[in-house]
TrEMBL record:
Organism, as annotated: Cytobacillus kochii
Cleavable signal peptide: none
Mandelate racemase/muconate lactonizing enzyme C-terminal domain segment(s): 143-235
Similarity annotation: Belongs to the mandelate racemase/muconate lactonizing enzyme family. MenC type 2 subfamily.
Gene behind the chain: menC
Active site: residue positions: 164, 263
Cofactor requirement: a divalent metal cation
Alphabetized NCBIfam families for the sequence: menC_lowGC_arch
Protein name, entry field: o-succinylbenzoate synthase
SMART domains assigned: MR_MLE
UniProt record, GO biological process: menaquinone biosynthetic process
């Protein structure tokens, strides 16, 4: 693949509804879209960072800097990239900054698929023609409101309901939902809001027949999670703790989790995602694809990786309309009764719309072969 130009777009999209988690409330998403111009096609990637370092250490500003000043020049240092698997090797000298790496690498995966006239799913080795998806519900102002919102999404057919919890908004809220919906597939995401001192709360949650409890303890822990998992029957799912295949190996070895929420950005890209997928498949650890409140470009990448066989649990890739008044791709991502069809057109399968990209672009730079046009 001959890469002729790379653009970075800083985007802002207003969320339809505020999204509250244990570490704060989001009302809009600021993120970066990467466009990689090849001979005949453009590959698209999404950098799923936030404006502030609440989820991980990266922000829009850090990612922009790392891509502009280190990762893009590194890509141009290669006369030819023959396969996207080469990109993560190129980025190895640079520590962490996984979401920045994943955005560029993802755009090159999309370009590769388009230039080879295959879908991104096929390029990744996906086997499914459709995927089951669930939905993630932020912390609600009241238990009654939570039950109402859960009912709305159950009626829309989502295959699993993920509910955000934090100390003080956990057991009673989930008990009320379980009472109203005794048989639904239901899970909790704590975003690291608890410690082992909260063991009694976890023992109460353990009675609610949850599919899993996601990231209950510290964002960089696997030791205490192993101690907690030995005391509850509900599977622990790790999200923030897993940044690489190495992290996944250690967590599985220690018994820190029985499920992993895979996020392409958090682990540094699609090549690393495939490695984690294959290893977890060998070890009998099911995966699902988490979300970062992405636009349709990031959602398209999530849909493609979810087509791999060991993504056996419904993920967070809900319809675009859950988040946005208008998405920046056509068609928009749509789940029907909790099912999304894998696109059959080359690449990511959802076409970014230039006028919508321009409408929501706050800033753009074009980085050609060694020159900058601000
Ligand atoms: O709908 C989605 O995109 C998933 C949203 C979601 O649950 C999360 C997004 C970003 C960080 C966290 O708050 C949380 C998660 O931990 O998965
Ligand atoms: Mg999570």
């Amino acid at each position: 693949m001959n890469i002729k130009n790379i653009s970075l777009r800083r985007m802002k999209l207003k969320l339809k509804d505020p999204f509250q988690t244990s570490f704060g409330t989001q009302t809009e998403r600021e993120f970066i879209i990467v466009e990689v111009q090849g001979e005949n096609h453009v590959g698209y990637g999404e950098c799923v960072v936030n404006s502030a370092p609440f989820y991980n250490e990266e922000t829009v500003k850090t990612a922009w800097h790392i891509m502009e000043d280190f990762l893009i020049p590194r890509i141009y240092s290669q006369s030819e990239i023959n396969h996207p698997d080469e990109v993560s090797k190129l980025f190895k000298p640079f520590r962490r900054n996984n979401m920045a790496k994943a955005a560029l690498e993802g755009a090159i995966w999309d370009l590769y698929a388009k230039e080879n006239k295959i879908t991104l799913s096929e390029a990744l080795g996906g086997s499914k023609k459709s995927i089951d998806v669930g939905i993630s519900i932020g912390i609600q102002p009241s238990v009654d409101e939570l039950v109402r919102v859960v009912g709305k999404y159950v009626n829309e057919g989502y295959k699993r309901i993920k509910i955000k919890i934090k100390p003080g908004i956990d057991v009673d809220a989930l008990k009320a939902v379980r009472k109203q919906f005794p048989t639904i597939q239901m899970m909790a995401d704590a975003n690291s809001a608890y410690t082992l001192d909260d063991i009694e709360i976890f023992k109460e949650l353990d009675q609610l027949n949850l599919m899993m409890i996601e990231q209950p303890l510290a964002h960089d822990d696997i030791i205490d999670h192993a101690k907690l998992q030995s005391q509850i029957k509900t599977p622990i799912c790790l999200d923030e703790s897993i940044h690489s295949l190495e992290d996944a190996k250690k967590a599985i070895e220690l018994g820190s989790c029985r499920i992993i929420n895979l996020k392409i950005g958090r682990v540094g890209g699609l090549t690393e995602s495939k490695k984690i997928h294959d290893y977890c498949s060998e070890k009998g650890i099911p995966l699902w694809c988490g979300g970062m409140l992405e636009s349709g470009i990031g959602r398209a990448h999530n849909i493609a990786i979810t087509s791999l066989s060991n993504f056996t649990l419904p993920g967070d890739t809900a319809s675009s309309s859950r988040y946005w008044d208008e998405d920046i791709v056509y068609p928009e991502v749509t789940a029907v009764e909790g099912v999304i069809q894998i696109p059959e057109t080359p690449g990511i399968g959802y076409a970014p719309q230039k006028e919508l990209l321009d409408k929501y672009t706050e800033e753009v730079i074009n980085v050609g072969c060694g020159y900058y046009v601000k």
